[in-house]
Every structure is written in C-alpha cells, then in structure tokens.
Amino acid sequence: MSHDLVIRDARVDGALVDIAIAGERIAALGEGLEGSDELRADGRLVSPAFVQPHIHLDKVLTGPLLAPNRSGTLAEAISLSHAVKRAATAEEVRARAGTVIRAAVVAGTTALRSHVDIDTIGGLTGLQGVAAARDDHADLCSVQLVAFPQEGIWRDPGTDGLMAEAMRAGADVVGGMPHWEADHDAARRHIAFCLDLAERHDADVDMHVDETDDGRWRSFEILVEEADRRGWGRRTTAGHVCAMAAWEDDYAAAVIARAAEAGVMVATNPPTNLMLQGREDREPRRRGIPRIKELLAAGVTIGAGQDCVDDAFYPFGTADPLQVALIVAHAAQLGTPSEIAAALRMVTTDAARLLRLPDHGLHPGARADLVVLDASNARDALREQAPRRWVLRGGRVVAETVREQRLHRGL
Asked: Where are the beta strands (DSSP E) in 305-402?
C-alpha cells in the first residue's frame, strides 16, 4: 500500500522504523513502507510535535517598550505592563504575536494556548490582536485563546462584564487569577464566577493560581474543590502554583492527591517563575516551581510553558519548548531516563492533554503533527537543544532547519 508520505529510518523508542502518513494522519509504523514522497530521517529522533500550553502572546516582545523591572517582581511587572496595554492597538499586538507564533513553529510547535489580558485598561484590544494573528497563521499552528483577568475581577470593577464579552467574542477558554484578589473569600467568588462562565460556554478553565511566594495562599485547593464539585476537574488547569513550594508537606500532599483524583492538571512555567519568585528571600530562596516530582508521582498531568517572551515579566525567551523542557529538567532535578522522558512529555503529549488534543501522539491514527530532531535519543535532544530538521503539521512540512558548522584550525 502506498501512502502520501513516509519518514524513512526514523528513531522511535530506540528503534529504526518508517512512519507512513496518509492525509493528515499517521497510517502505520513499520519497515519498508511505501509512499508517494519521503523524508529521510537517517536515524534522527522523531517526536510528537511540541505543544505550548501557557504563553501570553498579547505581551510578547514588549520589553523594549518598557522601563526596566527594577525589583524583578511580579507586582512591578504587572504595573509596568499597564502603559503598553493602554497604548496598544490590535494591529500592533497582531504583528508581535505573529512574530512569536512563527518562531514557535520553526521550533517544532503546532499548537499553542495563549492567555490574553481582559481588563478595564486594555479592554478587548489584546484579544482582537491575538485572534487576528491566530487566523493569519491557521495553516501553520492552532492557537487557543484564554480570557485572562490579569488585574483580578473584583479588584478591577467592570472586568466581569468584559470577561463575558470576551467569551462571546471568541475566546476559547476561561482564565482566572484568584490570588490577585484581596483575600480568600474574594478568590472563592472569583473562581465561582469563572466556572459559571465556563459552564455557560461549555469551555475549559485555565487559571493562574497562587503565583506568589506566600505559602498562606491556598486558592489551588479552592479551585480543585469547586471544579470537582461541578464535574469540571478534567477540564481545568492550574497554572504556576508557585506557593506550593512553601506549603507544609502534609498539606501539599493532601491537595495534590485531591487534584489527581479530580483530574485537575497543572501548567508549570519555570523560565519566568525562576526569574520572578523569591526576589525578597534570603538564602535558601523559594524559586516558584511547584512540587513537580510529587505531582508526577500522584498522577497529575503537567505541562511546561514558556509563559513570557521579552516583556516586563521575563527579559528572555524564544518560544522554544525544547528550551523550556531543559529548564524544567534543571529546576525539578529530572535527570534519570524516565524523568527526562517526563520532561519531554510536558512539552508534547502531556501538554496536549492540557489543551485537550486527544489525537496528539506518535501512533497509527494520531494526527501527523511531528518534529524530526537532529539527535538520536531524548537525552541528546535535550542536552544539545537539537535543531528541528523538519516540522510537520497534519502531514505537511511547515518548517525545516538546515545547519552548517565549520571548524577552521590553523596549521
């Protein structure tokens, strides 16, 4: 049987196989498969394409427009962003977001979830700009939009109405930031409002939760309980959860177990949170990373996100999930073969579970969203930050990298 495309001599789970693609799907893995066209992997590692589970495309590349974040804190970053939000136009947001989407695709990404600020400062301008960038790049990458109340809901009167308007205007996911409210009672009302909105629109939920060093914040527990009560746990993601590092061990274990039972997922964002958190600590300082090994052991699905690219929150970033996987491996001390595999799942198949992409993988019937890495195994791909030889979306090559290096030695 002849297929549309065969990736010849691909390295999959340590073995050399051919990957046959028919239309937008993987048709078979085996030996001697035939296709109308072929790519010669020559022993390169083939992986499910990267998935970016947490980024802010409305803010990317605004760093040059801002005063420096002198304290390096989350609070100052939010404050600095106000000026950019007030001045932004939808076209300007569209251009910046498009630049980063294209970079993400070249890096091997075929799906992203972007939080977009919804507040009384910028209104729906950011949503309009990122939605336009999404449409511009629909042939390269899918983009989910999260309506995100960065300034809080009750702290920013009028945001509740804007959130409802954003969902009617085409946002896909309901976001939230309950710990930015005045206290736990307000956070509870914040969470209830967001879940009410999600139920009305049959939408998933993806909230920024306890992004603070203050271990007294417990809004993750409130979110888990409320999502579970409504039967929304498997449609709910908690992002950041930095305060988890400061919780007492027994409390953390109990909440993690409850999250696992409810199906609530977690998005950790190590590049930005390693930079922002613990700024006012003396050594040893808190680093803003949730208890990743404990979450994994409990069976909680974790995605690892870029979060920010050159903005008030984070001065670096290239929207490259392989770089994020390397950072999370360092931050969570993931160094054994099984742990390295887990780090890569956080930017591939497990990240896809956060976005609820059920056919993302490397098996017959899966969508042919794949990346061919210039390495022969997962450890070397991570260690060397291997070039992405080819990136396929729906069985079609959407990006390729050709690298030439020369070493000149004197006589």
From this structure: 370-373, 388-393, 396-400
- Which tokens go with 318? 């290239």
Total domains, the chain: 2
Domain identity same for 346 and 371: no
Kindly state whether residues 162 and 44 are assigned to the same domain.
no
Q: Quick check: 411 pLDDT over 70?
A: no
Query: Letter for the amino acid at 60?
Result: V
- For 409, residues 6+ apart whose C-beta sits below 8 A from its C-beta are none
The answer to whether 211 is a known catalytic residue is yes
Q: What is the pLDDT of residues 207-250, one digit of tens each?
A: 999 999 999 999 999 999 999 999 999 999 999 999 999 999 99
| Residue 20, domain extent | 2-48+361-400
Distance CA 144, CA 186 (A): 28
Q: Of the listed 76, 211, 221, 226, which one is catalytic?
A: 211
* CA distance from start to end of the chain: 55
Residue-wise pLDDT tens digits, 95-144? 999 999 999 999 999 999 999 999 999 999 999 999 999 999 999 999 99
Residue 378 corresponds to which tokens in the numbers above?
A: 């997962």
Q: What are phi and psi of 51, to 5 degrees?
A: -125, 130
What is the rounded distance in angstroms from the CA atom of residue 171 to the CA atom of residue 365?
A: 29
- Are 36 and 169 part of one and the same domain? no
| Closest-CA residue to 179 (of 121, 239, 225, 226) | 239
